[in-house]
Design a protein that fits this description.
The complex is a heterodimer of chains A (1072) and B (413). Chain A has 1072 residues and is an alpha/beta fold. Chain A contains 37 helices and 38 strands. The longest helix of chain A is centred in the middle third of the chain and has 19 residues, at 458-476. By secondary structure, chain B is α/β, with parallel strands linked by helices. Chain B folds into two domains: 2-193, Glucose Oxidase, domain 1 (3-Layer(bba) Sandwich); 203-412, Class I glutamine amidotransferase (GATase) domain (Rossmann fold). Chain B contains twelve helices and 19 strands. In chain B, strand 13 (267-270), helix 10 and strand 14 (297-300) form a beta-alpha-beta unit. In chain B, helix 10 (281-292) packs across helix 11. The chains are: A alpha/beta (1072), B alpha/beta (413). Chains A and B meet through helix 9, helix 16 and helix 17 of A and helix 2, helix 5 and strand 15 of B.
Chain lengths: 1072, 413
């Protein structure tokens, strides 16, 4: 069946901001889908609120709406664009939910928009738990027994009559799975169910048969209109049931299933596709298997592409999202060629001849009060994937890709596990469990004992044991002569890194590297080809291993290596992948062979057709140098992938690698406080006063010299770890202690804190002679809130144009002085008419994609052109300034809803995982859009709870007045209530939480009476009751504002939107 | 029945833990696996090198993990990621040394159920890494133990992707694996001088010695009686007939038509088997005689090649064959694609199929080779691939059902 000709125009919904559980994999799948559909001649309209995506590049779709993803917005777009069809299966749960709402409200029918890929009924059958169960029952597939109960009595009844212990108790609608647990007997059940019923917003808990410790598997399935169904990839979770698959170490293909069991699962997966009725496209089906009886049950299915399907695509080379898009418009699998072989059809099942390990990346260091134990709710913020010829190789590569300071499953890793709590670490899963297994094996635990404790399959544990044994062999090998070549070859084949071996041998890693090369042990590169070598592959997608056959292809073209940004984490995410992709595109456009190196399977940069050659490899010195030595490119670009490649820059340069663009020396100058200070003086600029303290005494002296408030931060840490503001000495001492502890052995930096200063970010491109200022961003939150967590606006919404010009001039001088050849980001602060330089980073910043979308000038592309020798003059950018008759507001999105009990306030330490953009004619509407897009559903009526410290009461009262003017009612406790009524405002006084009296504000929230909360932190250490109020807001999705500037912007937005309509406009029209 | 199969299959090598509960067995295996590791992988064998020498002069090195010695065969590769036990016991691999492209083999051990015949027929197993432990609730033995007891060589620590790509580029070829002679030149000579597959009847070597009934002792209330010519049959073909209510009378491939017809079958089934289909004209003659009696007939793999020749077509050797569980087969009647298990080195040449006699019913979409034939007048059809799976997908299972329907139709007549 060829493609449909009755539809011409397709609407795609993206997944919005990066949040835990929904990350850049949907940029990858959405971008693939847009490309695939346009290739077929369809007009594609796209909505996605996330400006950091390749998907929202103006070139990806015909009309791109960077607007909040809500049914209301999509309806406006449908009215404007009148698409024939809506493809809802490529934008994660966000797209699926939005499409379902549009169907239910009749919008799709009204405007004659057909849902393609999966229809409403199929999505319901896949998503709605009870319906899914009955469909599975009909299809003869076993599901887990479960019961919804609303009272303790019902729960006891279920335990007596229906379910054997242990029973899983899951409260419905709670924050991060709080209040749930596993009940081993009736007493525990009563206790947990009672707690769960209380925690649940709907007083409902689900009692489920426990499959904790069962083996967990996933199947990636595709189906076409002709009912051809194929399995793209099977995945085995190393961690057993009970740990979210997003937080599990997962392995492809399955390792411990016989063909008989695998085929049973395959048959079941196909049945599920047919029973649920996913007409075309990809789905993910999850199974569990009892490890001793083989009993198999289905857990769930996702009738859409998912994180796992992105992983499966990267693991096999089969582009699931691209195919899903083509199948949705009527093609069948046999009509579409396999992109990798070009000769065989896509209607087949990939066979792989390597082992793939995916490892989650966590960010618990950012949320010290969060529960770091893993469970059924996902907590990881990113992931890395590694490919090896065996599990040990892939596992060790994955470990060194994580960038957690280890060189594999090495000795350094072991230091993370406290020996006296080894059993506890094995029993209750934390992120380092794999390391704990190694430690336990070294301490004589048997494979079975560990399997018994962890429920991890013995095969995986035995593989770790093999690593332990090889480590022993390396330790035992004579140190006075070179390592035996056979042993060397064997340990390299099993993923040991040079650094890891060097430590075991007491050698310098570089010296060891030379010794290894001299012994002729150098890696070979193998193709990911979908077919295990059966057919020749046309697409150069490589991974390294050790062996005889090297499949690298030399084209003779001038090549350039671009280093990616590795796993997503807080502070380094999709924004850097965006810049890397643009770099690759620019290099290809200029005729270079672009070689991409990255280890993050979620990204567009690791799509096989983004670059000319893709190396799926860890971003370490060794792995990158190995590629460099074989590819011999003309240079490497390290300024696009964030801190990951920058951290390698010095060593690469020292090893003789030409670094294109800004030299590592300039980068070092910007990072060295003393050199930088001298430059500031030379340029006659200002910096907040500062000092470096090695002891508490030093620190106190400096603080008194500068004067309070001061900002305290440890050195050599990332993303503002342990940064604090102290207003007096009593705060200063404990904070400074904490800073010393956060980075032992390193000095603590103390700066004057510019209270209530306006913070500014600037992104620019410099070629050494001229500067193009890409964007000046005014932060909404005052200085002191991490720039990544602050909302900001292009152009500045309240700054004097003269100040803006002064800022631009200062940045220009700094860029020229630093001899930047590419991108530079500067953070500045404005207090009164004074401009301070806070920090300068001569590299791609997090805001590059946002600035590019806001202004229509692609900064990363320009920087790349500069890096290979073009000038701004040649590019026509000297003296150019984009004329903006609109405002683009970026807002940060936080993972607080995943971490129960964590105080959702902003500070100098970055906590956001993603961002959205709102764009409109005025700042107010753009800000309003950004809030809605970030999930802050700003109200235009209702009751607002106000709570301010004495310092903040003045402006709070002002805001209160304005709110009353807009028709809101107010409620507050004690002091704030008095301050408000003193000004003649009507206010409902509520009891303080701490008083234990009722009604308090939580009661009001539970009754649905609170429309918004304005609450400023009482001090650097929040009181428990404040945290409780703020957490309750997160749980109930009540808009909450915690800063003065945020409150003012919010008020402005509400004023602007109240009673007014708003419009949507594609980004292409802004830049036309 | 499973127990019966189990001892039959393992013959002189009963598993050590036979008779114990499965759970108990699993524990024993996992433990003994780890203990065995100390024995098997340390002192003796760890240093035991092996050379895989090809007739074109190429040599690969590896480590012996089971059954040292010197073994000859055609070197082929299989891309199935699971199912090594079924592959080893598939008689179609008689005369061949199998390289698994999936690098981690042996993880789930072996068990008494997943066997496809009475013994291991492959002449050797080449893998990248063989697991020293068996980890699966049905496992009763590790793979090294299994091969060791059968006296079959297993070699690992081999760059199997290098072998695969070599065979893909140069074709399947004669090979010798040795742990005794480690001189590449001398081995290459031996490989060159070895027999090879072309023109050879390897099927008779593995066919049943005398007729037997499946299930053993006959099937009560069987709906149909199927005469089976055993060219090297995989047991799952018989299991499926049993499931579908058929009793099978299995004959050696040398049985004359008269003897076969004497059991008054409702249908005739031709199994898979090893070797060159052109090397067994006597079977083709028997088959020709049988199908002319209008007996509903179904053939798989070697059986398909027999029927193709009986229809007047010729077979030829593929460069490196199709061996794997992921091959796309299109049913030309419906246009639908099924994913099927494959194991063949020879193929029917479509140019030699007389369109008056037979039509191509299925094709392999990877290279458009003939994957199925149907006779234009007689109730005869056959496929080149393996609807019995084991290992592989169950998609083409419907072919067995179609055969039963065919027998039903003809029984009524």
């Amino acid at each position: 069946m060829p493609k449909r000709t009755d539809i011409h125009h397709i609407l795609i919904i993206g997944s919005g901001p990066i949040v835990i559980g929904q990350a850049c994999e949907f940029d990858y799948s959405g971008t693939q889908a847009c490309k695939a559909l346009r290739e077929e001649g369809y007009r594609v309209t796209l909505i996605n609120s996330n400006p950091a995506t390749i998907m929202t590049d103006p070139a990806t779709a015909d009309a791109t709406y960077i607007e909040p993803i809500t049914p209301e917005t999509v309806e406006k777009i449908i009215i404007k664009e009148r698409p024939d069809a809506l493809l809802p299966t490529l934008g994660g749960q966000t797209a699926l939910n939005t499409a379902m709402k549009l169907y239910r409200s009749g919008v799709l029918k009204k405007y004659n928009v057909e849902m393609i890929g999966a229809n409403y009924d199929a999505i319901m059958r896949g998503e709605e738990r009870d319906l899914f169960k009955s469909v599975m029952k009909e299809a003869g597939i076993e599901t887990l027994k479960s019961f919804h109960v609303h009272s303790l009595k019902e729960a006891i009844h279920v335990a007596e009559k229906e379910l054997p212990f242990p029973i899983i108790v899951r409260p419905s609608f709670t924050l991060g799975g709080t209040g749930g647990g596993i009940a081993g007997n009736m007493d525990e059940l009563k206790q947990i169910a009672e707690r769960g019923l209380k925690a649940s917003l709907s007083s409902e808990v689900l009692l489920e048969e426990s499959v904790y410790g069962w083996k967990e598997f996933e199947m990636e399935v595709m189906r076409d209109k002709k009912d051809n169904v194929v399995i793209i990839c099977s995945i085995e979770n190393m961690d057993p049931m009970g740990i979210h698959t997003g937080d599990s170490i997962t392995v492809a293909p399955t390792q411990t299933l016989t063909d008989r069991e695998y085929q049973t699962m395959r048959d079941a997966s196909i049945k599920v596709m047919r029973a649920v009725g996913v007409e075309t496209g990809g789905s993910n089906v999850q199974f569990c298997i009892h490890p001793e009886t083989g009993r198999m049950a289905i857990i769930e299915m996702n009738p859409r592409v998912s994180r796992s399907s992105a992983l499966a695509s990267k693991a096999t080379g089969f582009p699931i999202a691209k195919l899903a898009a083509k199948l949705a418009v009527g093609y069948t699998l046999d009509e579409l060629p396999n992109d990798i072989t070009k000769k065989t059809p896509s209607c087949f099942e990939p066979s792989i001849d390597y082992c793939v390990v995916k490892m989650p990346r966590f960010a618990f260091e950012k949320f010290p009060s969060a529960d770091a134990h893993l469970g059924v709710s996902m907590k990881s913020v990113g992931e890395t994937m590694a490919i090896g010829r065996n599990f040990k190789e892939a596992l060790q590569k994955a470990f060194r890709s994580l960038e957690i300071g280890v060189d594999g499953l090495d000795l350094k890793a072991e230091a993370k596990v406290p020996l006296d709590r080894l059993d506890e670490w094995l029993t209750r899963t934390k992120t380092e469990r794999c390391i704990a297994i190694k430690v336990a094996l070294k301490r004589g635990y048997t494979v079975q004992k560990i399997a018994g404790i962890t429920k991890i399959d013995p095969w995986f544990i035995d593989n770790i044991l093999q690593i332990v044994e090889m480590e022993r062999e390396l330790l035992d090998a004579p140190k006075d002569k070179p390592l035996d070549v056979d042993l060397l070859r064997r340990v390299k084949l099993n993923g040991f890194s040079d650094a890891q071996i060097a430590v075991l041998r007491g050698q310098d890693p570089l010296a060891f590297r030379e010794e290894r090369k001299k012994a002729g042990i150098i890696p070979v590169y193998r193709l990911v080809d979908t077919c295990a070598g059966e057919f020749e592959a046309a697409t150069p997608y490589f991974y390294s291993s050790y062996g005889e056959l090297n499949e690298i292809r030399k084209t003779g073209k001038k090549s350039i290596i671009v280093l990616g940004s590795g796993p997503n984490r807080i502070g380094q995410g999709i924004e850097f992948d965006y810049s890397c992709v643009h770099t690759v595109m620019a290099l290809r456009e200029m005729g270079y062979e672009a070689i991409m190196v990255n280890s993050n399977p979620e990204t567009v940069s690791t799509d096989y057709d983004t670059s000319d050659k893709l190396y799926f490899e860890p971003l370490t010195f060794e792995d990158v140098m190995n590629i460099y030595e074989q590819e011999k490119p003309i240079g490497m670009i390290v300024q696009m992938g964030g801190q990951t490649p920058l951290n390698l820059a010095d060593r690469l340069l020292a090893a003789g690698v030409p670094i294109l663009g800004t030299s590592p020396k300039s980068i070092a100058m910007a990072e060295d406080r003393e050199l930088f200070r001298q430059m500031i003086i030379k340029l006659d600029l200002k910096q907040p006063e500062s000092g470096t303290a090695k002891t508490m005494d030093d620190a106190l002296k400096i603080a008194h010299r500068i004067g309070f408030p001061v900002m305290i931060r440890p050195s050599f840490v990332l993303g503002g770890r342990a940064m604090m503001v102290a207003y007096d000495e009593t705060e200063f001492v404990p904070f400074t202690h904490a800073a010393f502890n956060a980075s032992p052995g390193h000095p603590v930096l103390i700066d004057r804190f510019l209270e209530n200063a306006i913070e500014i970010d600037v992104d620019l491109v410099c070629d050494g002679k001229d500067v193009y200022v890409g964007g000046v961003m005014q932060h909404v939150e005052a200085a002191g809130i991490h720039s990544g967590d602050s909302a900001c606006s292009i152009p500045p919404y309240s700054l004097d144009p003269k100040i803006v010009l002064e800022i631009e001039a200062a940045c220009t001088r700094m860029a020229l002085e630093l001899n930047v050849k590419g991108l530079m980001n500067a953070q500045m602060a404005v207090k009164g008419s004074d401009i301070y330089v806070i920090e300068v980073n001569p590299r791609a910043s997090r805001t590059v994609p946002y600035v590019s979308k806001a202004t229509g000038v692609p900064l990363a592309k320009i920087a790349t052109e500069i890096a290979v020798g073009k000038t701004l003059k040649e590019l026509g950018l000297v003296g150019f300034r984009p004329k903006l008759s609109w405002y683009a507001v970026k807002e940060a999105v936080f993972p607080f809803n995943r971490f129960a009990g964590v105080d959702p306030i902003l500070g100098p330490e970055m906590k956001s995982t993603g961002e959205v953009m709102g764009i409109d004619k005025t700042f107010e509407i753009a800000y309003w859009k950004s809030q809605i897009a970030a999930g802050q559903m700003l109200p235009t009526e209702g009751c607002v709870f106000l709570s301010a410290t004495d310092r903040d009461k003045g402006w709070m009262v002002e805001i209160g007045k304005a709110l009353v003017g807009l028709g809101f009612t107010l409620t507050a406790t004690g002091g704030t209530a008095k301050a408000l009524s003193d000004e003649g405002l009507k206010v409902v006084e509520t009891c303080k939480l701490a008083s234990g009296q009722h009604p308090n504000v939580i009661d009001f929230m539970q009754e649905g009476k609170i429309a918004m909360v304005l609450n400023t932190p009482s001090g650097p250490v929040s009181r428990m009751d404040e945290i409780k109020i703020r957490s309750e807001c997160i749980l109930r999705n009540i808009p909450i504002v915690t800063t003065e500037s945020g409150a003012r912007a919010t008020l402005g937005a509400i004023k602007a939107i109240d009673g007014n309509d708003w419009t949507v406009k594609p980004i292409q029209d802004y830049h036309a | 029945m499973r127990r019966g199969l189990h001892s039959q299959a393992l013959g002189k090598y009963p598993p050590s833990g036979a008779g114990k509960g499965l759970q108990g067995l699993m524990r024993i295996v996992i433990m003994s696996g780890i203990l065995a590791e100390k024995r098997a992988f340390s002192a003796d064998t760890i240093m035991k090198k092996a050379i895989i020498a090809l007739e074109d002069g190429t040599c690969f090195t590896g480590r012996v993990f089971a059954g040292p010695g010197e073994f000859y065969g055609e070197l082929v590769f299989n891309t199935s990621m699971t199912g090594y036990q079924e592959i080893l016991t598939d008689p179609s691999y008689n005369g061949q040394i199998v390289t698994m492209t999936y690098p981690l083999i042996g993880n789930y051990g072996v068990n008494p159920e997943d066997i496809e015949s009475r013994a291991i027929f492959a002449k050797g197993l080449v893998v990248s890494e063989c697991s020293r432990i068996a980890s699966n609730w049905r496992a009763t033995m590790t793979l090294p133990e299994y091969l060791e007891r059968a006296g079959i060589i297993g070699v690992d620590q081999v760059d199997t992707r290098a072998i695969t790509i070599h065979i893909r580029d140069k074709g399947a070829m004669k090979c010798v694996i040795s742990s005794e002679d480690l001189d590449c030149k001398s081995l290459v000579k031996k490989a060159k001088n070895s027999a090879g597959l072309v023109g050879r009847d390897l099927s008779t070597e593995v066919s049943a010695q005398k007729p037997y009934v499946y299930p053993a002792g006959g099937k009560k209330n069987a709906r149909f009686r199927v005469a089976v010519i055993d060219c090297g049959i995989k047991t799952n073909q018989l299991r499926i007939f049993d499931q579908l209510g058929c009793e099978c009378r299995v004959f050696p491939n040398t049985a004359p038509a008269k003897e076969i017809l004497a059991c008054k079958p409702h249908g005739l089934f031709l199994s898979n088997g090893p070797g060159d289909p052109a090397g067994v004209p006597q079977i083709v003659a028997t088959v020709k005689e049988l199908i002319e009696s209008k007996l509903p007939t179904f053939g798989i793999c070697f059986g398909h090649q027999m029927l193709g020749q009986a229809f007047g077509a010729k077979t030829y050797k593929l460069k490196f064959g199709h061996r794997g569980a992921n091959q796309p087969i299109q049913d030309l009647r419906t246009g639908k694609v099924e994913i099927a298990s494959h194991n063949h080195g020879f193929c029917v040449d479509p140019a030699t199929v007389d369109p008056e006699t037979a039509e191509v019913s299925h094709i392999n979409l990877n290279d458009n080779t003939v994957a199925g034939l149907r006779h234009k007048k007689l109730p005869v059809f056959c496929v080149q691939y393996h609807p019995e799976a084991c290992p592989g997908p169950h998609d083409p299972y419907y072919l067995f059902e179609e055969f039963v329907t065919l027998m039903e139709q003809y029984k009524k007549k």
